[in-house]
Every structure is written in structure tokens, then in C-alpha cells.
Amino acid sequence: xxxxxxxxxxxxxxxxxxxxxxxxxxxxxxxxxxxxxxxxxxxxxxxxxxxxxxxxxxxxxxxxxxxxxxxxxxxxxxxxxxxxxxxxxxxxxxxxxxxxxxxxxxxxxxxxxxxxxxxxxxxxxxxxxxxxxxxxxxxxxxxxxxxxxxxxxxxxxxxxxxxxxxxxxxxxxxxxxxxxxxxxxxxxxxxxxxxxxxxxxxxxxxxxxxxxxxxxxxxxxxxxxxxxxxxxxxxxxxxxxxxxxxxxxxxxxxxxxxxxxxxxxxxxxxxxxxxxxxxxxxxxxxxxxxxxxxxxxxxxxxxxxxxxxxxxxxxxxxxxxxxxxxxxxxxxxxxxxxxxxxxxxxxxxxxxxxxxxxxxxxxxxxxxxxxxxxxxxxxxxxxxxxxxxxxxxxxxxxxxxxxxxxxxxxxxxxxxxxxxxxxxxxxxxxxxxxxxxxxxxxxxxxxxxxxxxxxxxxxxxxxxxxxxxxxxxxxxxxxxxxxxxxxxxxxxxxxxxxxxxxxxxxxxxxxxxxxxxxxxxxxxxxxxxxxxxxxxxxxxxxxxxxxxxxxxxxxxxxxxxxxxxxxxxxxxxxxxxxxxxxxxxxxxxxxxxxxxxxxxxxxxxxxxxxxxxxxxxxxxxxxxxxxxxxxxxxxxxxxxxxxxxxxxxxxxxxxxxxxxxxxxxxxxxxxxxxxxxxxxxxxxxxxxxxxxxxxxxxxxxxxxxxxxxxxxxxxxxxxxxxxxxxxxxxxxxxxxxxxxxxxxxxxxxxxxxxxxxxxxxxxxxxxxxxxxxxxxxxxxxxxxxxxxxxxxxxxxxxxxxxxxxxxxxxxxxxxxxxxxxxxxxxxxxxxxxxxxxxxxxxxxxxxxxxxxxxxxxxxxxxxxxxxxxxxxxxxx
Length: 876
Fold this sequence. Notes:
GH115, eight-stranded parallel beta sheet, hydrolase activity, Glycosyl hydrolase family 115, Hex-like_dom2
């Protein structure tokens, strides 16, 4: 493990309104009491970030108690309750305690960002005990100080989501020695991206108008949040609407004050923002094969400017505005040679300017889009450069390191999205990335040793608060996230901290349902439109016939969700209502009403005005949803927290058709037909003739209307394999659960004989009234192979039929892939014979570990089509 928690036993108790002696004993330490407050001692030699962390802690204590705690740089203690914070080698107090063997530093000395929190009895004459926070480096010490903030109940989102802590008269902590080794991931950070309609406008027009952009004032608040989240790396905002990060000389200074490492995205080589800083008129074309001298001068100037500040340099080169590098139509070999020349020149500049060995300078190569093609076709990359893999922009990691790549000196990392601008469609409005999916993908990356560098594209930061914290907590200590249950527990603790224990479980329940519905289809995709090029509102794939109405079902699911959030909102304490609105209420209400807007539009479009159907009702409901969404967004910007967040929440980024008000005069055509539905998805057909005793006794999946529908997690029997097994993952999939095969590094088995004998298998018992051809349809989560040469495979068979291997792999950015990411689902099928009526066994084997199966549909000719598979056909 990169990070060790030698003892994770720490309990915080607050004694409210009590003047009695502490009942916590020798392991207690008083922060604030009626008789005395602690004092924080920071050595003058400490880094600025340590001082900043101490100041934040003092403010946090004041928010809770109203009591002021002092920060002192004295050479002697004047308090009987000293909190001593310092970095090994920088703090004389820490050094003295180490010399006297009062502190054990063996588990953190020389380690990256490590810290220890300890109680030391009688550190000096006249002091009964001291609370000591010692760090291995400046960030380690600062993180240790901010850990006290967490312990006393302050949220990292106290400013960015207006989470107010519970008021207390006293704060007393129960502490046992706690040591944190190095974090799981060395570089952990965020990318501020696609900021045009939120963060940039908020900073420019509201928070920092004096600079007219995202400048030092805004970055100081961002860096404070990152310090609280233990994130250490920033990819600054870089769209052309935003002034380049290095155009403000104070930006890099503020970053250094907060000990933030500066990096840049895949299209910003060597910290250079090409979009904002490259001037074609004076510098020529952004084309290395014809203008290398000017481009290298550009690189050198930035390295000189950033020298002396912690940085990670992205090497390689792409075109302007996230486009492929212009190579004048050169073939792949010439492209590879040119890219290798670029990297070699960049490394020479780094070495000559910094006077350091190039192997010791943090560098990263991001094989994204066409750069991945160059890498897979033989580009030579020095071993010390980190590889950073990416997801496919929709939450599914494209590939990971092969066994030989896992041995690279520079290691590897992940660039992951919770916000995206691009085809097949943007999702820039709300956070609709499933947190359990994010855990599954990052846990997979962790298992394949991608532990050097994790970056999360957080868009405007808001409203990605929870997923940002989850991502950073996983990067800090992935050992605490070994299963889907750990994610749910994490959300529960988050909800308790932000909203109180009374409502926490209810918040988790409704957020899991929010994520399930968004997983079926993100709100931004509900108009069935595309981008690049932008298309107009399309035809919904939600299915309606005489017995099925998927539109109405989704309306009702969102109505139930809205009812839940309204109930929970009433139980939220007044001082927590703003935070609840930002973190839960607006996302739920916003998503529901955007869905209503289009769902009622499609109801209107597929129904003619006759037989008593009130067409205007659908139009009115759609318009009401649009107006409710507009009203809530105005409140978020103009009234919430007295306008603090004005301009941050835009309900129509890029003004795409999905965000506009539907036009009902154009909705219907002559081909529209009336459809009545009772929304009973699979009413059981009558069985002709005598019902057999076998059928009467049978309980389980049964054929109805010539189909058998099964949720994959509801297997009849499970048999583990020689090295792997199937497990149920909660919180992902259309029904909220899927089955997946673990461990990820289990031995690959591809021959039918080997699969049947050694792979884990799930059995589903079902009763068939039909005989003959049966089409087995599997719906899976559209993940990608671990690396080239692998697949996303499983095998299926009914009874003793020959097993059939199904592979869910897709190629590049194909139409199949686009459909998959729009639906968060991928489909494959196989034909099998059912020889007799009665009880049968469907078997599902693992082939590739990691495949996630969501739903199963056995079709004997009765399936008429639908967006989701019909509800389970179960006889109980």
C-alpha cells in the first residue's frame, strides 16, 4: 500500500454547555471550554500553507463556538493547552520533542505528504499535555491541521456549498495516536473546464469583477477548497473566454502559498495555454514541422516563468482548440517521428532552464484521441514520463497499463470526466456521473497500478461537489474503498456531516434514486439531440404501445423522487437549508423538471386529440416544468445566500435545443396516432389448456407474452470459479444493481472447456411455455477492455446447449459506442434452442473479469421493442 493508516481510531465528542470536568480521560484534549481555549503554535520557519491551514482552523473553531483561538509564533508556551503544528526539520518544537523521544516520526519521515496527530504528555514544564501535529513536508503538516477541522465537524464545502457546522459551546476531542503514510495517489487534482457559462461568468460578473476573469481572488478560494479536500494539483481554466492562468502574475504565487502544484491538460503542452496565448499574427502557425523555432521559444518562456514553482509538465503536442496536431497530411510514421522530436525538445528545455536532471522533473504524457493512435503505433516514450490514461469522456476508462507498462518508472494515472463538452452530446449542466461507476472505474485503475496522477474534470466545481469529494477521498486512501458498500457508507457519512443524522439515510436513498434515473438517461440527453453538428429535437426511444408506456413510467418515477426530496427538505435544520438546496434539492428538482418538460412533450407528440384525451394538458405540464426550472435557477443565482452564486448556475449551457422551451405548434404530424396504455409492462397472458402441477409449484422467472425478463442480480444459484466470482454491485445499472466479476486480475479463460470448468457461473431458473428458438439478450454496462488484446466478454447457454461467448467491446467513437454512452448500456444477443416446455436453466459465465451485466431478456418472439427491457417476469 502507498498509504498506511497504522491506527485509524479517532473519535470526536463535543460537550455542549457543560462546565464539568472532561469524562474522556487522558486521551482527551480541549479545544474550547468555558475556562480556557487552546492556542496554536506555528514556527516562523514554516511554509505559508501551514500558516494558512492554521488560520482556517481558527476560523472553523470560531464558526462552531464563537470563541477565538490564537496562533502564536513564540519561542515559549503561554497556554496549558498548546496545539503544536510543524514540519519535520522546520519546527524547533518538533525537533526538540523528537530529540527527547517524545515523538515517533519513523513512519512519516521522508515520505510524501504524510502526517501524524499525537498527544504528548508533559512536553515542557508547566504543560500537562500538548496536541502535536507533525508533517513530513509542508502539505503533510497542512493536511494534519485541516484534519482537526474535519474532526470538529467542519465540511470541506463550508464556503463552496455553504455548509454551516453545528454550533457548540465546547469542543473536546478524544485522540489516540494516528499516523497517515503517503496517500494512494501522488498527484490528485481537478481540471476547471468548459467554464464559459458558469465559473467564468460568476468570477467575472460577481465575485472578481476587478480582474474580469478567473483571477487570484477566485483561485485562492479554489485552492482553499483543494487544501480542505487534500487535492494538490490544479489544471487551470483554459477556454478562450478566460484569461490565461499565467497572465496574472499572482496566480502562481497564490498557488504556491497553498502548496498547489500546477499542471495542464492534454492540449496545453509545457503549461502553455495555446487557446489564449498563441498569437498567429506575431508567432506564426501552430505547427511544429514548419514553425518549431517560435514554438520552442514559447515553451522556454513558460518554463522560465514557472521555474521555482511546483509544476507537472505535460509533454507532447496537439492542435489548437483540442484538435489533432497539424502535420500537413503526414502518414502515421512521420507523425510519430514529429511527436518524438517535440518531446525531446521539451525535455531539453526543461533540463536547461531548471538545471535539473530531466528524469527528475515531473512530466506526463496523455495519450488522448489521435495521440493514443501514435502511442499504440510505436511512439518511443522515456520511462520516467508518467502515462495518463483517459476515460471516453462519459465515465468509462478507455484502457489501462499492460503488465510491462505497469513497471514504468514514471507510473501512470487517470484523467476522468464528470462534465464534458462534445459529441455525441454535452453534459455541462448538472452532475449526472454515477458515483458507483466512478468508484468501479477508479478502483480498476488502482488495481492496474495507475496511482501516480489522478485528475477529475469538474467543470465549474458546482454542482459536482459530492463526486469531487469522493474522487479525492479515493485518491487519498483507496484502501478504504474496496467495495460498493464503502461508497454508500461514504455518502452516508457525507450526508450526516452536511445535513445531520436525522435525515442522512433518506438523503442517501433519494440520491441513489437520482443517480439511477440519470444513469438510464442523463437529463442533458432527454431531447434525443446530438452535437457536432447540433441537431434539433429527435424522436424519443421511450416505448409506448397498448400495454407499455415507458414515458409515463419515467414521469411517475420522477414524481416519487420529487415527493421524497420535498419530505426531506422539511426535515432539514434552518441553518443547513442553503447547503441542502445546492447539494440535493436543486439537482433533483432541476433534473425532474427537465425530464417532465420533454416527457410531456413526447406524450403530446404521440397522442392525437380525440377520445377524451386532453392534449393541452400535456402542453401545459411541459410548460409548467420549464417555468419551474427557470424559477429555481433564478432563485439559485439571485436569492440564494443573497446572490453569492449569481451567474454560477446556467440552465442552458451552449443554448442547446435540450434546454429550450418546446414548440408545441410543430410537435405533431399527420402520422401521429392515438395510443392508449395502462402502463402494465408485461401482463401475464392466459395459458391455454390445463396448467401443469410443475407450473403451479414453480416460483421464479416465467415466460409471459413470449418473453422472460430478468434482473441480473436476481440469480437462482451462484458457483464461484477457480480464481474469480460474481458479485452484486449496488448503485449502478437500470435497476440499481448489476453483477460483475472479480478480481480484475483474475486469469483470462477463453476456451469453452476452460470457461465451463473454471470460470464463475450464475444460474437463472425459468419456466418456459414455448419451445424452439430463444434469443438471449444481455444488457451490460459499456465498459472497455483493460488493454489491447482483452475484451468485455461473458458466455451464456440454456440447459446443455453449447455456450456462446458475447463480447461488448466497441471500436473508437463508432455509432454503436455513441448509442452506448447515451444510454449507459450495451447489448449483445445469442440464439439457443429450448427443446421442451417447463423448467430450464440459463447460465452466465465470466470470460473477462470486470464485465458488468445489468439485465437479461429471453425472447421467444414476443418482444416488440423498448428503451429498457420489460419489468421482471416473476411468479411468486
